[in-house]
Design goal:
The complex is a heterodimer of chains A (399) and B (721). With 399 residues, chain A is α/β, with parallel strands linked by helices. Chain A is 46% helix and 10% strand. Chain B is α/β, with parallel strands linked by helices and 721 residues long. Among the domains of chain B are: 186 residues, Rossmann fold (3-Layer(aba) Sandwich), CATH 3.40.50.300; 140 residues, no CATH class; 139 residues, no CATH class. Chain B contains 26 helices and 9 strands. In chain B, helix 10 runs antiparallel to helix 11. The chains are: A alpha/beta (399), B alpha/beta (721). Chains A and B meet through helix 2, helix 3, helix 4, helix 5 and helix 6 of A and strand 1, helix 1, helix 3, helix 11 and helix 21 of B. Chain A: GO terms for molecular function: DNA replication origin binding.
Chain lengths: 399, 721
């Protein structure tokens, strides 16, 4: 049977459809490992430190400058297409931000006012865009008290079509971003895109971005109309593969979480962050210092003691590769209590519990029960070894 | 780039870059700083601007023509519709004895552009107040009512309304506000309140149900008329499918359909490029025509699509330096003498050279009796004579094009008449009309109509007397109706037809009739053959004819998904093509997995996985690749160092303490390992993994699901090659 299949494989070329059906037909077998349990998330500082230490040669594509200069030689062509009554949509792998910004400064700004819109920014609103267009020195004469976004957009188009002798260039990074996908934003954009005096060059990164516009919408040509706001996009598509990572676009993403890139967009952002803090997952050095600064001397002593025990445990660990999971270095409650009593930090259970309470509330100390209902409680600090050491160091310095 | 503040600040949402050009009108000069010229080696120094100038003029001609055709087609319909709409509120139109009045409603099925023309026509009429509603205005009934009311009230605020707003105390979404506003005008100021719904299919039907109901309550007092713009077909009707009967009962619906479909498109193509009274500067070639019909039938049946295809064809055509001569030979100067001078300047030599080469190049088919003889001896050619001969060639190209058009039209007429009589001519191949039509046009342009003309001739020979009379009279009418400049040229043919006609009228019979038909048939074949010779043979035809150059279809029909995937899988190819050394053999071998960027490595692993991916497994597999990458890098570095140090067997004099250089390097590597290993390396791997993961997430390759802890769903399935 398997022979048959193999033979058929050699005759027929496998397609993406086959891949889908093959994978969808069987249950996918994956391991039981859970990433966030096994690997301690990186804090923002650690992430940046790690990225900075990244040796240049680990990118075999340091040559993306070549790609960039390859693209910049087409700027006059892009300008020509914009001036011929089209809007341009750039697609392809990699961040197109730098190239488009370069395009804006080097080419567009020579022909008229230019507005660069960071659509990928989670705080971006269409109102920002319209307001800053209206705040361009020449345009301030425009009546600012129009109520709706649409009428504001219409007025901008009218102004550039009649009063201004130069067009407006609108560079939209990530026009497929959630904030620009809302009905309101799209209606406003379609008005701007439909005006001959407003020339739009936008980029998309999403795989499914073309689905945002119907074929009628994306082909509707620009028209200057006086009474009705004409809507349409008049897109021309250009491949702008740069292979540059989206570091800038994702600079506000939460690098400590797997869902960081999709979670940071839109409204889900704040909620997600809160969840993380409540779980204590995103404990940072700074946060630890803040907590420690506000607790009693005894509590600080307790923390130092716990750190010493935990660091010792980490050092003793033979298998370094699974060092990500800190729970395995946890201290049993009984051990901690004995140690605390020996060091005169807490003489009874209540005292120790009240000292630990403050830490637990802020997620600086995590606890868990092991070995079922009869098992004992274990406690650990959710910080890496080197961070722990640094925290204790500063603690001793301030003391 | 650094001079623009905020451009590199991730917290900025919008950055303005003020106009940086000069204030005077020297934009053209600016343009020349960064010329776009794919063929710089044989271009004029200011060729780009000149060509753009010519392009603009040529395209404007073509665009105006197309627009006037559409306008001519639409105008009567629009006029009629406008009259109907304007008289809709008159009492005579209402159905008698209804328990409540209906709102006159017009459904316009057609493209938005047509709709705009209609509404402009109607709203510009005095005594009509207009209000445009878009789907985004009507997310709920309050917002919808507010837009409706404020649109009317505000529109008249600016005009001739010195009184203060009469209903300032009423809520802005209250229909009574509108009523008060309407009542404060003198009677007859507004006879109709036109409400125009754009993109009607995208409105929420629940909201509109309420809106219609509210409006109908005020009906006799407020003379509402609704106009709905629909892009769906008239049958099955969207309105009747979605809206309930009690809503439909409030409306008196009338449907209108804009001119559409292939007949319209064919009309546009024929009247622009095969018209006897219009001569476009640039003739489009067969690939463009084929692309138009393909796009029209497959993707989008819109006139805008056709216009865009035409414009892009024009734009592409004018990339070629020689096209600066498309309209005249003046090269942007005022007279031929100045053009001559300009061409004689050293800077223009590359252009001159390429023009000369093209002129002296033998034409593809030398049997051009109709082509004026141009001196092939380029050595005696002066710049002036070169320019005049371009003029001559242009004239001869246009003459050839005129012939083709006459032939095309005549063939069309004859086939049409014969078809009506029941004689099938050339009905073969494709069954769909669109393709047949376009194929016919392409054959004509390419000069491959011998078969058609032969077939026509053969059919003519077998006609009956009445049929022959009918054919001759319609042919006569065709020649009679030619524009004057062509009529003179085709005088001979007309005279011939008149004489045959009179012979037939005299009633020939038997053998004489057959002989006459034979003559007519042969003449038709020869005449058509003479006319339909194709454009390919004309000299310098690529100045005026886009020929067989393909249409740049990726501009309007791209493959972004495939582009992203191939860039992820084969990033090396992009670098290679950008740096322009596609043929270097050492790069030909496919790079190893560890040589790829992080995101590509992750993506490979992604494709290999099942439909669901455990992030931890993914991470581990990624770490393995990075590990081997690190080892390879180390080896490379080591090799590099050895290479730098010259022959490793010769120890350097200063460090010669019993250790070879190679050994030293090894030690260094080991010590480096110790530093890199452990925590720092793991953190780097993790950071790179997270970055790659986010990168893929950002592009939509990952769907997060709560079904299983730290598992993600794949959105893309493909086979690794």
């Amino acid at each position: 049977m398997s022979n048959d299949i193999e033979e058929s494989h050699s005759i027929l070329a496998e397609t993406a459809f086959d891949a889908y059906f093959v994978q969808a037909s069987k249950s996918s077998r994956t391991s039981d490992h859970v990433f966030s349990n096994l690997v301690e998330p990186l804090s923002a500082e650690e992430y940046h430190a790690a990225m900075k230490s990244l040796p240049e040669q680990s990118f075999p594509f340091g040559q993306d400058a070549r790609l960039r200069s390859h693209h910049s030689q087409y700027f006059p062509q892009f300008i020509r297409e914009l001036n011929a009554g089209f809007n341009i949509l750039f697609f392809g792998l990699g961040s197109k931000r730098d190239t488009l910004n370069q395009f804006a400064v080097q080419a567009c700004a020579k022909y008229g006012n230019c507005v660069v819109v960071n659509g990928f920014q989670p705080n971006f609103t269409v109102k920002d865009m319209l307001n800053s267009i209206i705040n361009i020195p020449d345009v301030t004469s425009l009546d600012p008290q129009s109520q709706t976004l649409d009428s504001q957009a219409r007025r901008i188009c009218d102004y550039y079509a009649s009063a201004s002798k130069r067009p407006l260039y609108l560079i939209v990074h990530n026009i497929d971003a959630p904030n620009l996908r809302t009905t309101k934003a799209r209606s406003c954009l379609s008005i701007l895109c439909g005006s001959p005096a407003v020339r739009v060059a936008a980029s998309v990164d999403l795989l499914h971005a073309p689905l945002l516009w119907s074929s009628t919408e994306s082909l509707t040509r620009k028209r200057s109309s006086s009474s009705v706001a004409h809507r349409g996009y008049a897109w021309l598509w250009h491949d702008l593969t740069t292979l540059v990572p989206h570091d800038f676009e994702l600079s506000l993403a939460d690098r400590s979480s797997i869902t960081g890139a999709s979670g940071f967009m839109g409204t889900g952002h704040a909620r997600l962050q809160q969840d993380h803090f409540a779980n204590g997952v995103a404990m940072t050095e700074e946060a630890a210092q803040h907590i420690l600064a506000s607790v009693t001397e005894k509590a600080r002593k307790l923390f130092t003691m716990m750190t010493t025990i935990q660091v010792k445990a980490i050092d003793e660990a033979v298998d370094v590769s699974v060092a990500g999971d800190l729970q395995q270095f946890a201290i049993g409650y009984d051990t901690l209590f004995n140690a605390a009593r020996d060091n005169f930090i807490a003489t009874n259970d209540t005292a120790l519990r009240s000292l630990l309470g403050e830490f637990k509330d802020h997620g600086l100390v995590l606890s868990s029960t092991v070995g079922g209902p009869g098992g004992g409680e274990v406690l650990w600090i959710p910080l890496r070894k080197e961070r722990l050491l640094r925290v204790v160091e500063t603690l001793e310095l301030t003391a | 780039m650094a001079n623009v503040a905020g451009l590199n600040d991730p917290n900025q949402t919008v950055i303005c870059i003020p106009y940086a050009g000069r204030d005077d009108e020297q934009e053209e000069a600016l343009l020349s700083e960064s010329l776009y010229s794919p063929h710089q080696s044989r271009d004029l120094p200011d060729g780009f601007e000149l060509r753009m100038e010519v392009y603009r003029a040529a395209w404007q001609d073509c665009l105006d023509r197309v627009q006037s055709i559409i306008e001519a087609l639409n105008a009567p319909k629009i006029q009629q519709l406008a009259e109907e709409v304007l008289s809709a509120s008159s009492p005579s139109q209402a159905v008698a004895n209804l328990p409540y009045p209906e709102i006159p409603t017009f459904c316009l099925h057609g493209p938005p552009a047509y709709f705009e023309d209609v509404t402009r026509e109607i709203v510009d009429t005095p005594n009509v107040a207009g209000c445009h509603l878009h789907p985004s205005d009507c997310s709920n009934i309050t917002a919808a009512m507010k837009s409706l009311v404020s649109n009317f009230v505000n529109s008249s605020d600016t005009q001739a309304n010195s009184k203060k707003r009469p209903a300032a105390s009423l809520a802005s979404y209250d229909i009574n506000t509108l009523r008060a506003w309407y009542n404060h005008f003198d009677e007859g100021t507004y006879t109709q309140l036109m409400v125009i719904f754009h993109q009607f299919e995208q409105f929420d039907s629940a909201v509109l149900n309420d809106l219609f109901y509210i409006c109908s309550l005020t009906l006799p007092e407020l003379p509402f008329v609704f106009i709905l713009s629909l892009s769906s077909p008239p049958t099955p009707s969207y309105l009747h499918a979605i809206y309930p009967r009690d809503t439909l009962a409030l409306l008196r619906v009338k449907k209108t359909v804009a001119p559409h479909g292939w007949p319209l498109a064919k009309r546009i193509l024929e009247d622009t490029f095969f018209s006897l009274d219009f001569e476009p500067n640039i003739m489009i070639g067969a690939p463009t025509l084929e692309y138009i019909v393909d796009y029209f039938t497959r993707y989008n049946e819109s006139i805008d699509a056709i216009l865009t295809v035409l414009q892009l064809t024009y734009m592409k055509h004018f990339d070629e330096p020689l096209t600066v001569l498309a309209r005249d030979s003046l090269l942007g100067t005022d007279s031929l003498a100045e053009a001559e001078q300009k061409l004689s300047e050293p800077a223009s030599f590359p252009f001159l050279d390429s023009l000369l080469t093209r002129m002296s190049f033998p034409s593809p088919q030398p049997d051009l009796s109709s082509q004026p003889e141009i001196r092939d001896d380029w050595s005696v050619m002066t710049v002036a004579s070169l320019l005049t001969s371009v003029d001559t060639l242009r004239e001869s190209f246009q003459a050839r094009l005129r012939d083709i058009k006459v032939g095309y039209r005549l063939l069309d007429v004859v086939i049409g008449v014969l078809g009506e009589m029941g004689h099938a001519v050339g009905k073969k191949g494709k069954t769909d009309v669109e393709r047949n039509d376009v194929e016919f046009m392409c054959r004509v342009i390419r000069g491959r109509c011998a078969k058609d003309s032969k077939n026509v001739g053969a059919v003519v020979k077998e006609l009956s007397l009445t049929e022959a009379k009918e054919l001759l009279s319609s042919m006569h009418k065709f020649f009679q109706d030619l524009p004057s400049h062509l009529k003179r040229k085709e005088e001979k043919a007309r005279v011939k037809i008149v004489s045959w006609n009179s012979q037939l009228q005299r009633g020939k019979e038997g053998r004489e009739f057959v002989a006459l038909l034979e003559t007519i048939g042969d003449w038709v074949t020869t005449y058509l053959d003479e006319r339909l010779k194709g454009l390919e043979e004309c000299r310098l035809r690529d100045i005026w004819y886009t020929g067989s150059s393909p249409f740049p279809s990726e501009l309007i029909n791209p493959a972004p998904r495939a582009t992203i995937m191939s860039a992820l899988l084969h990033p090396h190819e992009y670098i290679r093509s950008a740096s322009g050394n596609g043929e270097t053999s050492q790069h030909q071998q496919t790079p190893k997995l560890w040589e790829l960027p992080d995101t590509s490595i992750l993506f490979r692993r992604y494709l290999e996985g099942g439909k669901m991916i455990n992030v931890y497994d993914w991470y581990e597999s990624f770490a393995v690749v990075l590990e081997s990458q690190r080892n390879e890098m180390r080896r490379k570095r080591q090799k590099g160092r050895q290479g730098d140090g010259g022959d490793p067997s010769t120890p350097s004099p200063s460090k010669n303490k019993g250790k070879g250089k190679a050994r030293e390097v090894d030690d260094e590597v080991v010590s480096e390992d110790e530093g890199e290993d452990g925590v720092e390396w793991r953190m780097q791997v993790q950071a790179r993994f997270i970055r790659g993961l986010h990168e893929l997430d950002y592009m939509g390759f990952i769907k997060h699901t709560g079904r299983k802890a730290d598992h993600v769903l794949k959105t893309v399935f493909d086979v690794l090659d």
